[in-house]
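TA notes, week 10

Several of you asked for a full example with nothing omitted. So below is the full record: structure tokens for the whole chain, then the designed sequence directly under it. When grading your own attempts, check the secondary structure regions first.
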């Protein structure tokens, strides 16, 4: 059975859907949810133009939507913007529990081997039919924090809408968490 810290760590990843790949400047960032994962071999087989690799933009391409960013831009954005914002939120929620917040908090210790893929098995699996209800039974405080703050903030940072249960669209728990 996972400890509450594990659930908190895992739920935290709900917001980190597409990769904190900036932790390793040499690794390829995660592919978008609707694309196949990037592999170093695939990435190396196609030469990027300056516009594709972000050479003509500020680091992280802040004016480019997440879905339109190159892998390099995503990598930079996750390290410069996303990680910084989420680290601040999690530490404000519980300084002691999240004082060591880093890429591995969401992506796991095997993040390089999994190419920063999300969802990740390193996170607490959630009930597919009622992820919020089941998580609330397990740890109400962290679940409320995830639902009320992390998911909306992550969605905004990733240029997405928060998950809408009526339409089944948007960024939510399963952007990061596997199902049971």
């Amino acid at each position: 059975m996972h400890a509450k810290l594990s659930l908190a760590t895992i739920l935290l990843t709900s917001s980190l859907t597409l990769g904190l790949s900036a932790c390793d400047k040499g690794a390829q960032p995660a592919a978008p949810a609707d694309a196949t994962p990037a592999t170093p071999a695939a990435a190396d087989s196609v030469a990027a133009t300056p516009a594709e690799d972000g050479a003509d933009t500020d680091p992280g391409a802040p004016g480019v939507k997440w879905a339109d960013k190159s892998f390099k831009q995503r990598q930079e954005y996750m390290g410069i913007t996303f990680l910084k914002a989420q680290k601040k939120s999690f530490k404000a929620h519980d300084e002691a529990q999240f004082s060591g917040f880093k890429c591995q908090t969401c992506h796991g210790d095997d993040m390089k081997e999994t190419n920063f893929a999300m969802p990740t098995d390193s996170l607490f699996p959630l009930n597919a039919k009622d992820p919020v209800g089941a998580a609330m039974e397990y740890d109400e405080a962290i679940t409320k924090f995830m639902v009320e703050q992390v998911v909306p903030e992550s969605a905004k940072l990733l240029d997405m809408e928060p998950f809408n249960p009526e339409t089944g669209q948007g960024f939510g728990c399963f952007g990061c968490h596997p199902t049971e």
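Residues 4-175 form one domain. Use that as a sanity check on your answer.
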